[in-house]
Structures are given as structure tokens and as C-alpha cells.
Amino acid sequence: MITAGIVGATGYTGVELLRLLAGHRQVEVSLVTSRELAGTAVASHFPNLRGRFDLDFSEPDAAAFGECDVVFYATPHGVAMQSAAAVLAAGAKVIDLSADFRIRDIGCWERWYGVKHQSPELVAEAVYGLPEVHRESLRQASLVAVPGCYPTAIQLALLPLLEKDLVDASRLIADAKSGVSGAGRKAATPYLLCEASESISAYGLAGHRHHPEIIQGLEQASGGCAVGLTFVPHLAPMIRGILATCYAPAREPDACGGELLQQVFEERYRDEPFVQVLPRGELPATREVRGSNVCELAVSWLEAQSMAVVLAAEDNLVKGAAGQAIQCMNIMFGWNESEGLAGIGLLP
Amino acid sequence: MITAGIVGATGYTGVELLRLLAGHRQVEVSLVTSRELAGTAVASHFPNLRGRFDLDFSEPDAAAFGECDVVFYATPHGVAMQSAAAVLAAGAKVIDLSADFRIRDIGCWERWYGVKHQSPELVAEAVYGLPEVHRESLRQASLVAVPGCYPTAIQLALLPLLEKDLVDASRLIADAKSGVSGAGRKAATPYLLCEASESISAYGLAGHRHHPEIIQGLEQASGGCAVGLTFVPHLAPMIRGILATCYAPAREPDACGGELLQQVFEERYRDEPFVQVLPRGELPATREVRGSNVCELAVSWLEAQSMAVVLAAEDNLVKGAAGQAIQCMNIMFGWNESEGLAGIGLLP
Amino acid sequence: MITAGIVGATGYTGVELLRLLAGHRQVEVSLVTSRELAGTAVASHFPNLRGRFDLDFSEPDAAAFGECDVVFYATPHGVAMQSAAAVLAAGAKVIDLSADFRIRDIGCWERWYGVKHQSPELVAEAVYGLPEVHRESLRQASLVAVPGCYPTAIQLALLPLLEKDLVDASRLIADAKSGVSGAGRKAATPYLLCEASESISAYGLAGHRHHPEIIQGLEQASGGCAVGLTFVPHLAPMIRGILATCYAPAREPDACGGELLQQVFEERYRDEPFVQVLPRGELPATREVRGSNVCELAVSWLEAQSMAVVLAAEDNLVKGAAGQAIQCMNIMFGWNESEGLAGIGLLP
Amino acid sequence: MITAGIVGATGYTGVELLRLLAGHRQVEVSLVTSRELAGTAVASHFPNLRGRFDLDFSEPDAAAFGECDVVFYATPHGVAMQSAAAVLAAGAKVIDLSADFRIRDIGCWERWYGVKHQSPELVAEAVYGLPEVHRESLRQASLVAVPGCYPTAIQLALLPLLEKDLVDASRLIADAKSGVSGAGRKAATPYLLCEASESISAYGLAGHRHHPEIIQGLEQASGGCAVGLTFVPHLAPMIRGILATCYAPAREPDACGGELLQQVFEERYRDEPFVQVLPRGELPATREVRGSNVCELAVSWLEAQSMAVVLAAEDNLVKGAAGQAIQCMNIMFGWNESEGLAGIGLLP
């Protein structure tokens, strides 16, 4: 049994971490911080935890975190980079769900996030928390940068094609649809029920912060070749879920085909506990993974257009955030990778 | 470890049973029947179970059920009463989620359900599966009639008031709002997204089958006094959840009051693992119990109207069906009552 | 052709006024004010008006309003009471959609709204804008207080019973369910899609500002007898619509009955252009009146409980706000009462 | 004033036609047919029409249609091709909202729809009802084939680029998201609220009937050049609306650019009453056109990917069906093209 602390658990990622950790047999949450809610009961803020979680929010305090075995940051960008070094020095492992340590190119990170990075030296040390790619490095990691929700879905969808060099990496398209919880719990007009329900819209055409993170992962999978990706995120009228529809033109149409693609995906993810490659002809839906850590994948071959279309469905708060963070922790501590993540999705 | 069979697990109650039983450490589901889906994989029908559940649906077969330790009926009314006797005789315990054994007055049952009862002798033997009232009898039960979703919420809301004789039992009102999953998974126009979303409506003004079941429970709580209840169910535009708003005029206004009511509720449910009496002034919402077996209760005293208003929120598929069935099973087999039911609700 | 001004048209009531007035053949909107949006195009704020509405928001300015023939206040409470007198003095008629002039008892109003009333003398002059009760007075009115959304539905539901003295006025219950647009367009956490969708909850148990307004109307209908009303509002997971389920015990059960009630309602509203009494046995749904000025009513008689149950469904932004305001204007100016309100509701 | 008949007005397209025609000053609906509902009141089937529409459904009868000036078919494919010739011969104009006369290549049509075409000679005579392309032909047309909902959005999005030869027509992608009403009103499990809400999914990867129809239109715009289009439709959890996200790689990146694209779109649609090209940087949302005949378009230039991204938002039941049919009728009869279509969309 280890102890865990959570920094900034007042948003949807935070409550999802608490929900999942409550069912984890190796972890006890000993510390949950929030500047604004310090002194109030966590369960009064998140009523689903009522009667299940006795802690109060406390003030962030590096010393206290040092007594934890692992500390999760469920904060906006810019927080973890300020205190992670102290927490690591005090002996805790750090799992950051924010963007602070995801992008290895510091200049690129600073351009997209608009602030100076406070811990560039930690970026090199951080392991990118996508177990399907970095499992071995995660076993030794002290600092993990958990991928964003869009990057998880899109990388899992496109990696097998790039690793096998089956598609033209310069002409990829990812059309992604996200539930509203991806925007967090902040009170902003566009996310009101009256604005966001019964409607669908695109955003981020001028550029989205997840774009360089996705490119970084895809280029690594391509063996360093430049990747061209058009990424358009959409806001869908639902609470949870991401569906990424990815379009990849075949490099050599005659050498491609539906059977081959299916086989490539099944082999790539055969041993992955949380990636399900659907049988040929079946297509994913976000409702099938609501509340679970599963990412569903389906690959289709459109002969007439020489196009591979890959669909990826995940719960943005689980495999796209809190669940993946716990999966990383399980690997870091040498536990069964599914510990705490065996819950079946809620359907309907 | 015991083995469980499920009859008719093709609807929402069935898949919820499978979801919850998958996390139960004492039970292995060994048999799932469906006439129409026999031979196909359960997981192909319910994609959230993919990779988690290897069974195929099989034809209903009393002999096979006899080899189970417990058999759940997740069927429409009229099925369990035909085969439960054989299953019981073969040595299995029976937990019926349908209406067949809920109402002790056979004539009343036959009027409401429009068919002749096939096993009236079993009705007397069946224990009504509301643990908050019948826990002791459940310990010895072989046949349990799990309450309907509305009756669970409304009885839990009104029982403390009637047991303490605080309200005028002849003038009770229950205005209940249910998510659409309460109507089951049948393809019927009124439950299409385009018909049921973005709208709220009442139904059943001419009479609802849950009415006599509720009355039976409330009259027992009143020590046999006649109960007058106006019950109006509503269809709310959401998947899961029931909120029952119950109105009960005080018998003696001067002897009543908010503090007293709060105390009565807290005492009545102090030791109940799945009933949460909210602190005074807080009100429940169905989102707080989505996917969990909890029933939230809040009691308010309206001084000017001498009226107690009790709000009850539950997940109609969990505490209102599958979760309560498992809670009953845990009691029948002498296990921890929370086994398999410790999952925290999904929020948001 | 007259000119109209709208004060504070930045919320949902404001855009609904603009939508409806755009189709009104006697009115041109010449002035729309908003302190915070002054100088920006109305259509850039409300994209459904793009290409249909050329005005910019301007600063509130009493002189400019004086040049209008009619001025609508679509403001929070406390605004109209400050400037309505000046606007009236300048010669415009005033239609106030806020609460400022609805309650005749100034002390009562000040207790509920927590501020001192700035124009108590105007309250006496104001006509309550429920055409089904005050049509004659509206013809001469200069200042109209348009009812709130709950009061409209609940009064239309209960008036016939009280006017005919059929029910026990001391024991009325109104259980009302409202879409989220009733809370306005302010960015507040409880109204985020992730908080308000897929859930239903009650609020206002400690008292709701619409309660005294409803009582005032019902007592007038009862000929001045005291009315006892338990009113519990609920937040339903949808954008528009109110459904009020009203419970009224018969004064003399033997003298009541379903046929009588149906006849009373049909007679009461026979000539009303915007009240539809449904045929016996049919029940309303809010989707049937989405976007239209209709209020649907259905009355049921529950013999066993000696209870009349009346259901009222309306669009809270139309018959519950902007549509009713225009209906009042039509009466004040002597036009066809349906002018601008003939649009059929959007279904599905 | 002319008279109109509607064949098969029992679905969502039918009721939308009735809603819009009720506000049309030149048309009286004199005949509404439905085999299964013959003899019942139209308003009892569609409660939003209650009190506004006095007709009963009648049996389909070619003679009766002959007395109409115009007949709308709101039927599944395969119906209009059987009786349209007789209706035309009797002197009525025919506006077919089904697929029967949309595709000029009979063989292609028969492959996709799986039946033999009964009136191939009428296909040549039919005018494709996209006013933005075929306005002149529509003025003389007796038989109009109204485009499907996806084809309308996607063609309006891509036409300007193809007409100006700005993009590589062989590598187009249309990722389209539709509300559930696009599936019609049939009672089928996938469209239940409990299945379709809170989820998004793709379908039709193996081919969709709208694909050849879109190709036909795009190839005409390209001056007959072959068009390669990957089209993936999605089911979004909402009632109404289509958002098409279209990706078109520039033919000569250096000759393209955001300003140029904006100008091309603004010029192309300058005089169109129902196409709104949004200001640069603004993006459409389906909620902005709910209930209105407007199609919103926004074009973005992604410099790094040399990619034009065009977003089109429409109400699938209005500009994607009934509204466009009425727009065609207005042109055929020489009326103001906006007659009956001036209603502003419902927001929120």
C-alpha cells in the first residue's frame, strides 16, 4: 500500500482520479490540495464521493507531498513545472496530467503555451505516458507526462500505419470530436447546456496546443520522418468521449488492403490490455467506453480512394486522462497494469 | 465462488447485472440465456463487455439453471412465474427482477398485469427484496422479488414518516421523474432520441403497475393503516436516474419540524450502506448516483404548508434494479452487503 | 408600423424577443441596448439573427427610448423600476419582462428581492400581463408586468378550478420542471452541460421568488380566499420548456369528476388563442410547444384519491416570457392577438 | 394561392413541410396522404400542428393529386418513381424529396438502391433542386429532385473550390456529422435515446447512398473532371443539424491563401438568400441554423498543410430537406424565393 497526493483535484480529471483510485487496492489517497477549497470536504464538492472519501482539501505544501509515494498533478499547465522538482527531490514520483512535460522541444512548448518553462531540465527526464509506446521507459520513470486526450486517441489510431510505413505521412488528417468535459469545469458561456447541447461545431482551426504533441509522437513512430497532419477538433453535445476519425492515404495502394490493415492493427495491439481492435466491419462508439480505460480502434480500407480510415473511441477523462495516469502508475510501481482499471464501462 | 445464471439478459437490466457481477469476487456468471440471441456472443450484443466476458447466449433450459447456485430473471413479467418453481426445485436460489412475485394479493396482481398467475403458491414464499425493510427475511430467502425502480425510491422516501406516524397517510403524493432507460431497450417510437430528448412529459395518469406495489409497502410501514397515494410518473430526457419528489402533509404540524424530520431520517438509515441522508439544506440530483447503488434522500419541512417534502434520487438500473438484486444476493449468501457494489458513481 | 426598443437584450429572453419581433408586421425594432456590448452588432452576439438584423447594441439612454412607441425590459430585476417612469413620461408604453412590477404588495416584493422598490407608485398602475385574466385591463395599459415562466404555467393550470371553487385551495401542490434556459445565459457552473445534462434535481425548497406571485394570482381567482400552495421547482436536462404538474384535492369529491373537469377547462379557455385544452386522455409534452406561444393543458380526475391533476406545458422563453410580452403588446395596441406569434413549434 | 398535396407526410420531413407551408402565403395544403394513418387527423399525429391544421390523412389517390398544383413526395425511395408520371400527366408539378430522381445514371442508381427504376425517362427530365446551382432550370421545371441532406451541405462547401479549380479534386474528404432526425422516425434500436444520446459514432464506411449523388454534383462543378471523395458520415447525439467538415488540398499552394479563399466564397454566394459565408475566423455551429433554411459556410486556409478546410452547417430537415423543397417551389412558381422561409432559427 502506497500513499498518493493529488494537486488541484477540483476539476473533472481530479474527481475521475479519485473515483478510480478509490477502487485501487495498492493506493491510499492521503492528500488532496486546492487553494480555493482548502478546509472543505472533498466529498461535499464531488457528491459521488460522499460516504466514500473522508479527506478535506488542504493547501498545496511541497513538504506534505514529499511524504507521498506518488503525486498526481491535475492542474492547468504551468503549475507542475514550478513544484515538481521539489516533490521529486523529496522522494515522490510525479505523474503530471497537464501539458508541462509533454513536449521535448522547449521552444515549441513556450510558443504554444505562451509562458517561459520553469523546469526545462525535467522535460528531458520525463517519460511520455503512453504505455503502448513507452512501457519499458515507464518502468524506471520518476516523472511521467500523461498525454492529452486528443493525442492519445490519434496516436493510437495512426501509430501502426506509420510504424509499418504503409501511408503517406505527409497527408494525414485527424477529425476529432470531443465531449464537453474536455473543456474542464470552468464556468464559461460556450459550455453551458443551453449553448453546447443540441449542436456540433469545430474549433481551433487556427491551431490547437495538442497539435505539436501529436506530431512529436507520430514522427517518432515514423522513424523521424516529417509528418504532415491536419487536425480539426470539434465540440460534440455530450459529456464524455472522444471519437477521432483519421484519414491516411496509402503509400502504395496496390500493396495495401483491408485484410492487411486489420492484421497490422491486431498484431500491434495484441497484448495491450486497454486497446481493443474491433473485428472487421464493426465500428466504435464513444458510449461503448464510457467510464472505462479502453480505447476502441477500427481500421477500414477504402479501395476506391486508396485510403485507410481509422476510428478511435475513448473516454477523454479515463484513457484520455485519469485512467491512463493510473495505468502509468501501475507500470511505474510494477503492479498489474489493470489494477484499479478493471471497471466495465457504463452502458447505457 | 458460486455460479450464477441470468435469464433474458438482453435488456438494460441484464447488461447492468453483467457489468456489476463482473466485479463481484464471489460470483462467476456461468449461463446467460436468450431465445433470440442464442449462439451469439454476449459481448457482441453489449460492446462494453467486449474482452471482459466470454460467454455466448444460450437457449433457456431449466436443467442448466439447476446447476447454478443462483438464477436472476431479467425478463418481462410473466416469465419467472412459469419456470421459477423448477429452478428452485433443482436447488438454485432465484432472484426475480420482474414483477411476478412482488404483489402478495394475487387478484390485485392479475388485474394489473392482465394474465393469470402461474405460481400463486410461490408468491407467499417470496421475500420482497428491499433490504432496508426485509433484511432479516432475505437471509433465509430462496426466492426474492426485487422491487421496481419507482417503488424503491418512493418507499425509501416515505417509510420513515409512516413508521413514525408523522404524516397523514391518506394524502401522500409522489411525483416521480425517470430516465428513458426505465422503458427498456425495445424499439418504440416514444423512446427515440428525436421524441424523448429535449422534452418532459407525464404518463400513467390512468394508473401505473407500480402503484399497488408501492401501496403494499407503505401500508405495511403504517402498521396496516390504509394509505392514499397519488403517484404520477414522468419521462425525463436523460438515460438513467429517478428523482421522486414526495409530498406528505404533517399529521400534527406543531409536533413536526425540520430538525425532527432530519433526525428521523438519519436514525432510520444510519446503518444502511446504500442510503445516504443528505445534510439539511442539500438536495439530491440523479447525476450524483449514476452507476452506483446509492439512494440519496433529503427531507425538507415547509412550515407554511405544514408539509414534509422528501426527495429521493437513485439510478433506476442500479438501486432500482440490478444493484439491488445483487445487494439481496449478498444478504442471501451471507456476504458483505457491499460486495460488487462498491463502485463509485460516474460524475460527470 | 410602430418602433420598439429593448433594454438589456443580451440574454435568452432578449434574443427570443428579437426572433419573434422580426416576424411581426406592425413593429420595427429601432433600439437595442446593452451597456457591455454597446457598439457591437446584435447579430454577432446572436448568430441566428445574422443577415436578419442590422442594429448595433447601444448604451441605455432614456431620451432615445422616449422616441420609441414601446419599450421592452428584458433585464434582471431592479433595472426597470429605475427608468420606467422616465420612459413612460416620454410617451412610450412599457412592457417589463422582469419582476419589478408583478407583485402589488411592496413589502412582500422587497422581502423577496432584497432591495428597496424605487417606483412603488408605478406598481399600482401596472397591469399583470396574463391575457387570459387581464385582457380588458391590458387594452388600456401603459405599463405591463409580464408574468414569470412558472407563474404562467401554474396559474393557467389552476385558475379554472379555483374560479369554480371545485378544489380545496388550502392544499394545492405544483411540482414544476424547467429547462435550463430558465436560469438565463450567465456562466455559472450548475448550468454547464457537464453538470446539468443527464440529471434532474429540485431546488428552491427554502422558497422561490415566483411563489408570492403565483399566490397573488390564485387568491384573486379564488375571490380573495387564502391559498395554500406547495411549489417545488426542478431543473430538467433540456434547453427549453416547463412542465407543471399540479395537484388539487376536490372540495367535494362526489360533485367532481373527469367529465366535469374537462368541460370546465374547455369552457374557460374556449376563446383563448394560446391555450390548448387537450382532449381527455391525452397528455402534454414540452416538445409539442417548443418555440411556440401555446400553453397545453390537460386535466385528469383521479377518482380513488379525489384528486384533480392538471398538467401545463409551455415554452418558458415564449409563453413564459417573450411570446407573452408580444401577446400583451398586441392587445395594448389593438392588433390581432396572434400577430407575430403564429409560428408553429419546432418538432422534432 | 395554389393548392399543395403531400405524399407520405408521416415522418420528420413531412411534419417540417407542414410547419413551413403553414406560414407560406401562396400555398394551401389541401391533401396529405398516408396509407396507414388514413382517416386520422394530421394534428393528432403531430401535436405541434394542433389547432393549426384541420386536415385528415387520406389514402394516396392519383386523381386527387391531379387537382393539386404541386405535389411533394416525402416518402422513402421507390414510391415517387411509381406515381410521379401520373401526377405530372394530371397537371401538377412534382417536388420529390426522396432519392428517386437525383442520380442521372440509372445503372448507378439501381446499384445503390437495389431496385429497378420504374421511370427512367423522368430522370432525364428532373431538375436537381439545389438552387445555388440550378436556379435557372428550376424556373421551368415540372419535376424537381430535392438533394439529400449530406449532399446539400457538402456540395455548397466544395463547389466554389472546384469551380475555380483551386484544389486537387482527386483528394477530397468530407467528414460529416448528422443529428439523429436524419435517420427518420422509424422505431429502430440504434436511434433510441438510450443508444444514440451521449455518444458519437461513424457509419457507412462501406459506402453510403449519398456518395454518388455528391460525386455527380462535384464533377459537374469541376467541368467534368473525375472527383475523388472520401465521405464518412457520423451520428451525433442531437436531434437536428448537419456539420460537414471538408478537407481539400490546394492544387498550387503558393497561389492559394486565406484571403483568396474568403473572397472566392463571398463572391460565389453573394446573392444567395440562404447561404451565409461567415466572416474570416468565425466558425459555424448547427445551433445557429436550427429551424432555419440557412446554410452557414466558413473557409479556413491551413498554410502549413496547404489545406483548405470548409465547414458547412445546416438544419438537415430544413435546408437539407423541407426548406430546400419550398425554396425550389418558390422558384418554380416565380415567387419571392424566401416566401415561407423567413423564420429565424430557434436559439437557444
Structural notes for this entry:
4 copies of one chain form a homotetramer. Chain A has 348 residues and is an alpha/beta fold. Chain A has 2 domains: 2-125, NAD(P)-binding Rossmann-like Domain (Rossmann fold); 150-316, Dihydrodipicolinate Reductase, domain 2 (2-Layer Sandwich), CATH 3.30.360. Chain A has 12 helices and 14 strands. Chain A has helices at 12-21, 42-45, 62-66, 80-89, 106-113, 120-125, 131-140, 149-163, 193-196, 210-221, 258-268, 318-332; strands at residues 2-7, 27-33, 57-58, 70-73, 93-96, 127-128, 143-145, 172-178, 201-202, 229-235, 242-249, 275-277, 295-302, 307-314. In chain A, helix 1 crosses helix 12 (318-332), helix 7 packs parallel to helix 12 (318-332) and helix 8 (149-163) packs parallel to helix 10 (210-221). Chain A starts with a strand and ends in a 16-residue tail after the last helix. The mean pLDDT of chain A is 96. Chains in contact: A-B, A-C, A-D, B-C, B-D, C-D. Chains A and D meet through strand 8, strand 9, strand 10, strand 11 and strand 14 of A and strand 8, strand 9, strand 10, strand 11 and strand 14 of D.
Put the structure in a nutshell.
The structure is a homotetramer of 348-residue chains. In chain A, 32% of the residues lie in helices and 20% in strands. Chain A has helices at residues 12-21, 42-45, 62-66, 80-89, 106-113, 120-125, 131-140, 149-163, 193-196, 210-221, 258-268, 318-332; strands at residues 2-7, 27-33, 57-58, 70-73, 93-96, 127-128, 143-145, 172-178, 201-202, 229-235, 242-249, 275-277, 295-302, 307-314.
